[in-house]
Amino acid sequence: MVVGIDVGGTNTDAAIVGEEISTVKLPNELGLGDVLKKLSGMADLRNEKLIVSTSLPLNLLLSKYYEIPTFVLLVPGCGLNYTSYGKILRGFVNHRGDVVEDLDVEEVKKALEEGRDADNLAIAAKFSVRNPSLEHYLYTIAKRYFDERSIALSHHIGEINFPLRVNTTIINAKIRKTVYELTDLIGKFAGDFFFYKGDGGVIPYQVALRNPSVLFNSSPAAVAVGAYYLAREKNALVVDIGGTTTDFVVLEDGKPKIVDKIEIAGMKTLIRCVDSVSLPFGGDSAVENFSLRPIRLGKPIAFGGEHFTLTDALNCVGFDIGNAKASREAGKELFENIADAERIVEKYVSMIADSVREMEAEKIVGTGFLAKYLIPMIAKEAGVGYVVPEHSEAANAVGVAVSRISLTLYARFDTETGRVVYNGELEKCEFAQCKPGNIPSDEELIDLAMEKARKLAMSYGASPEDVEDVRLVYFNSYTVVRDGLKRGKIADVVVQIEPGVSSDVVW
Amino acid sequence: MVTGIVYHKKYLEHEQSPTHPERKERLAYTMDQLKEEGIFDNPRIKLLEPFEASLDDVLAVHTSSYIDFLRKESIKGGFIDWDTIVPVGLFEVALLAAGGAIRAAKAVVDGEVDNAFAMIRPPGHHAKPNIGAGFCYLNNIAIAVKWLQRNGFHRILILDWDAHHGDGTQEIFYKDNSVLFISTHQMPLYPGTGYPREVGAGEGEGYTINVPLPPGTSDEGYMMVFDEIIEPVAREFKPDFIAISAGQDNHFTDPITGLALTARGYAELMKRAVDLAKDICDGKLMAVLEGGYSVEKALPYTNLGIIAAMAGMDISHIREPEKYLVELKWRKKEYAIRKIQDNIKQVKKIHKKYWSCFK
Fold first, then answer.
1. What is the mean pLDDT of residues A343-354?
2. How deeply is A176 buried, as exposed, middle or buried, from its count of CB atoms within 10 A (0-12, 13-18, 19+)?
3. Measured between alpha carbons, how far is B55 from B138 in angstroms, rounded to an integer?
4. Which residues 6+ apart lie within 8 Å of B333 measured at CB?
């Protein structure tokens, strides 16, 4: 049994997936603590596998990007000018991962003294993904000035690209404390648990704490995986009608379409997540002056709220959602005749249908609470086929629950120096005894990276079936030559256990 | 300002032997540095994909018998000299390198970019019409310059700052007064040519300028040569295009030369060339990678410095790490400056009958 939770814009959805699927929707106004308390009564959160998708608190936090000051310490060494990114310190790790210039400890302390009033601290050294030692050293000093939960290190991001790594580290620094607090809160109700990533993957919470930017946009990813699992449609456009927004995600060959290097607060990052498009209209969107507005003033009247919404308009045109009678009575006061309510619904339907046509979809899978009412109309208007699967109202939570543990491993082998760096963490190389003339083949190094990815995923709790397929994403190697002799080999290997539906769940 | 970078993964495939100094790490490490600097996310940079040079393009420089030889030897592997063997599959990569140089020229001519750096290998400036040499098979820059000549450019300045004399390029344009060839190079060093008395012949007399440099020349020495020779003669020649044979083997960490230039020195040199181009030929400038063998140390950030200078980025942080600077103390020779001054005087004396700026 797996429990999946998705904290959305308005509600928190949960799905308990075992032999059968059961779902529950709870309003966010309860707070995550109470939501978890309620769920504890329905499933044994301490002993069942729990996966949490919670991009919302981070998205909200990032909407206040400039209100949360970050102090940025950089060790860029020789290269371009990064003064505009943060405080520059002496020191340099070169492209081979050798420290060719040390930190100046006095300079570091002085800088930290100057920056200590900031809310959080981002630390980034160039080529730290080849050798994180300067970042580690800075971290040990910085802990005296900053709460360690508010310090983010760039090498945890794993990828080469200093300026984008700096931008991503700044985001991590801003959100890390919040993710820690969430982790603590969830920890009160659960044992070890997992976070859901924006690319549809699942990772242990400890891994997410090192690079929380991966949680960004997890809800649309969850919806897409859930839609695929429930509707069994490999290629379709998922239309998720939520309370405040309607989101679109393309499914290609059973996987959500992914984008790289997304921009946050106008800055390019190394965040890789589902490619979702969002329109600011959903079931809770308010109706004012005979038109639908892109704002939420509260719950629909049909659910005890005070403001007339799209949901209430649907009740006025003949559906029975919640307390339909209350909606209709409010409608009578608001509209002269039923045609006014019809126009509200039609306007929404045609707006969504326009988007469906623009995205050149042939088939749509509808999810979200209102999908079963609205998707048939949208599909008809857009001239496309549709499915609204069972449990579509909690497809997001189902998607979370059925996903498998996934990871991307950036491996850098340097057999001459005996160094291997896995996702920014330096380890002793298995080829430490490598001598000239005894250099591992490319295949051996690829196998080593794949095996490491398997072991890592299994140590996270992945089942052996789920780690069978390790995909080689990138490979590059060259021989190190000095004084006319082959001294070793340098190889960059990126392998991935791709996000997907876990083999633990029943199809 | 937008700078084009011509690069292709295939440039990593060429290998004479894994222990040869002209090996793929030269570009692989440079690409590492460029990727870590986020160069390809920078709006000032455009990655340009090369094409293979056509046979017509290549035959504008090389003899058909040499091209036939190269093509044939590339099938099974062959031999030109001990520095320059012909590995299997060489011909295609060499065509892609020559095409890369044309791609850079074309991108500038078409206005796709303001200037361009062909980050290609194998290098080219030792290759002569009828034979390759010194790690070079096809003379990439000469092939690109001939292409420019066929496309409306009639006064082209080739500045060859590789540590080795560009003997191949010199020979190709020796009698051509529409191409001014200026080479700075360490002397004595391979290939042993490049004396100031080599000035061109026939109509091309005076259009070849050789400035030999002593070991230990350093940044100051290079700036002196730029100010005293390169800039004045370039202004007098009034080129419509500047093509640079950019060899990065003058760096003080280079294992096979001794010129003691720094990465910043290189960037400054390129910045001056770019400023000069803006002044005299609407900024039309391309650089073609030649040598540079400090793969483990400075080559990656030296290439970065050159690209940064071309793209008009801030080069004030292009510097040397502390642990390398010890080496510079040994390489830089104070007395070299006197020798450079002598050489400059000599060059001016020889060339004053061709160039009024030296009178």
1. 97
2. buried
3. 12
4. B214, B215, B216, B217, B218, B260
**Tens-place pLDDT, residues B28-81:** 999 999 999 999 999 999 999 999 999 999 999 999 999 999 999 999 999 999
DSSP letter for A148, please: G
Q: What is the mean predicted confidence (pLDDT) over A391-409? A: 95
pLDDT at A434: 52
What DSSP string runs through B203-270? GGTT-EEEEEE-TT-HHHHHHHHIIIIIHHHHHHH--SEEEEEE--TTBTT-TT----B-HHHHHHHH
Q: Do residues A480 and A490 make contact, with C-beta atoms less than 8 angstroms apart?
A: yes
Q: In chain A, where are the structural domains located? A: 65-173, 278-399, 407-497
Contacts of B358 (CB under 8 A, 6+ apart): B232, B233, B347, B348, B349, B351, B352
Q: Does A101 sit within 8 Å of B18, measured CB to CB?
A: no
C-alpha closest to that of A494 among A231, A236, A129? A129
Q: What is the CB neighbour count within 10 angstroms for residue A306?
A: 10
Tell me, what's the pLDDT at A483? 77
How far, in Å, CA of B57 to CA of B51, rounded? Answer: 12
CB atoms under 10 Å from CB of B205, counted, come to 14
Size of interface A-B (CB pairs under 8 A): 87
Within 8 A of A161 by CB-CB distance, chain B residues are 35-36, 38, 41
Half-sphere exposure of A5 (CA within 13 A, CB side): 29
Asked if A485 and B23 come within 8 Å (Cβ–Cβ), the reply is no
Q: How far is A58 from chain B (nearest CA, A)?
A: 25
Closest chain B CA to residue A93: B321
B62 counts as catalytic? no
Rounded to the nearest 10 degrees, what angle do helices A395-402 and A218-231 cross at? 90
- Is the pLDDT at A338 greater than 60? The verdict is yes
Q: State the pLDDT confidence band at A28, using cuts at 50, 70 and 90.
A: confident
Instruction: Say how far apart CA A379 and CA A377 lie, in whole Å.
Output: 6
CATH number given to A65-173: 3.40.50
Q: What integer pLDDT is reported at residue A105 of this predicted model?
A: 97
Q: What is the pLDDT of residues A89-144, one digit of tens each?
A: 999 999 989 999 999 999 999 999 999 999 999 999 999 999 999 999 999 999 99
CATH of domain B3-358: 3.40.800.20
Q: pTM of the predicted model, to two decimals?
A: 0.94
Where in chain B are the domains?
3-358
> Where do the DSSP E strands lie in chain B?
3-6, 45-48, 78-81, 84-86, 115-118, 156-160, 179-186, 208-213, 241-246, 285-289
The CA distance from B275 to B312, in Å, is 10
The ipTM, to two decimals, is: 0.95
Averaged pLDDT of chain B:
96
**Chain A residues touching chain B at CB-CB below 8 Å:** 76-83, 88, 92, 94-96, 100-102, 126-127, 160-164, 261, 268, 476, 478-482, 484-486
Long-range pairs, A428-435, Cβ under 8 A, ≥24: A431/A488, A434/A488
| Chain A nearest CA to B58, separation (Å) | 30
From A486, which residue of chain B is nearest by alpha-carbon distance?
A: B19
So what's the pLDDT on residue A440?
A: 87
Beta bridge partners of B159: B182, B244
pLDDT beneath 70: ranges in chain B: none
Interface contact flag, A95 B23, Cβ < 8 Å: no
pLDDT band per the 50, 70, 90 thresholds, residue A401: very high
Residue-level pLDDT at A118: 97
**pLDDT given at position B263:** 98
Instruction: Classify A130 in phi/psi space as left (phi over 0), alpha (psi -120 to 50) or beta.
Output: alpha
Q: Which of A80, A484, A486 sits opposite B308 (nearest CB)?
A: A80
Catalytic residue among B14, B62, B125, B126: B126
